[in-house]
Design brief:
Blueprint (H helix, E strand, L loop, with lengths): L8 E5 L10 H11 L3 E6 L2 H13 L4 E5 L5 H15 L4 E4 L14 H29 L2 E6 L13 H20 L5 E8 L5 H11 L4 H11 L8 H12 L10 E4 L3 H6 L1
Parallel strand pairs: 1-2, 1-4, 2-3, 4-5, 5-6, 6-7
Helix pairs in contact: 1-2, 1-8, 3-4, 4-5, 6-7
The structure holds nicotinamide-adenine-dinucleotide.
The site of nicotinamide-adenine-dinucleotide has 29 residues, from α1 and α6.
Length: about 270
């Protein structure tokens, strides 16, 4: 451990992963723990949260696994209370939950639009609603939200709700950051590009390539300027910086972790 987050308490949502391997939230939880943070690992899937707890504990870290659906206001309140009761404070709120559903406004069912906006945007509204008063009372806190390049640029997939929600998340985060800028609370966004996480095999391959994982990976690698996707650790290291005191003068901004994807689209 190098202690970049020594003794800080980090509440991480979506701290498991949808399938075997390293999702962004799981890698972030393990990395934060390696840097000395105590982890409150929340996930809608108790088993996924438990898996992260086991990984953290196996390396000598401290972790509580907690089942919560972050689109459910009562569950989010319980989650934040659970973190405070386990560890006494919340230094870092890492909002990692998110995901896409395919379609434009014509094809997408209204219920799918609502659910996707709830998953990617309302979830962060709810966690901030509950956690900000805790951070304000402490006089200190760091919020790190996870958006997506889908909210920055069009890369050929029609994901209208996801694009809108992730773009909205960037402005939501800036708004919170500015509202709390004199109260010791920072808020920033990590914007991942195409990453090779368990989600790719679990959902993306089925969504776009009839379940053909090899084809999906080749296609996604080919789309990236570097010729390959990033991985969960790339996202985790950016989140680590923003969550740490090294970023004490950094707020209301974004770090793109996209291997040049957005810059290429803009040129
Ligand atoms: N993988 C990529 O290529 C990519 C690219 C850009 C952005 N992102 C973003 O990164 C974040 C995480 O991606 P990932 O690939 O690690 O995700 P993932 O799909 O592996 O999900 C992580 C965890 O979130 C949990 N979860 C899902 N819905 C939840 C809910 N309502 N409440 C609580 N937990 C819930 C899942 O059970 C899972 O364990 C998302 O916000 C996603 O939009 C991913």
């Amino acid at each position: 451990m190098t202690g970049r987050l020594q003794d800080k308490v980090a509440l991480i949502t979506g701290a498991g992963s949808v399938a075997e391997g390293w999702g962004n939230g799981k890698a972030t939880a393990v990395l934060f723990a390696r840097e000395g943070a105590k982890i409150f690992a929340a996930d809608i899937n108790q088993e996924a949260a438990d898996e992260t707890r086991r990984l953290v504990e196996a390396e000598g870290g401290s972790c509580v696994a907690f089942a919560a659906d972050v689109t459910d206001a009562a569950a989010v309140t319980r989650m934040v209370e659970g973190c405070v009761s386990a560890y006494g404070r919340i230094d870092i709120l890492h909002n990692n939950v998110g995901g896409s559903v395919p379609g434009g406004p014509v094809e997408m069912a209204e219920a799918d639009w609502d659910a996707n906006i709830d998953l990617n945007l309302k979830s962060v509204f709810l966690t901030c609603k509950s956690a900000l008063p805790v951070m304000e009372a402490q006089g200190k806190g760091a919020i790190v939200n996870v958006a997506s390049i889908a909210g920055m640029t069009y890369y050929g997939s029609d994901l209208i709700a996801y694009r809108a929600a992730k773009a909205g998340l960037v402005q939501f985060t800036r708004g919170v950051a500015m509202q709390y800028v004199r109260r010791g609370i920072r808020a920033n966004t990590v914007i991942p590009g195409l990453m090779y996480t368990p989600l790719v095999a679990h959902r993306v391959a089925g969504q776009y390539h009839g379940g053909d994982l090899e084809k999906t990976v080749a296609r996604r690698n080919d789309m990236c300027p570097m010729g390959h996707m990033g991985d969960a650790w790339d996202v985790a290291y950016a989140a680590l910086y923003l969550a740490s005191d090294e970023a004490k003068y950094v707020t209301a901004t974004e770090i793109l972790v996209d291997g040049g994807f957005t810059a290429r689209s803009a040129t």
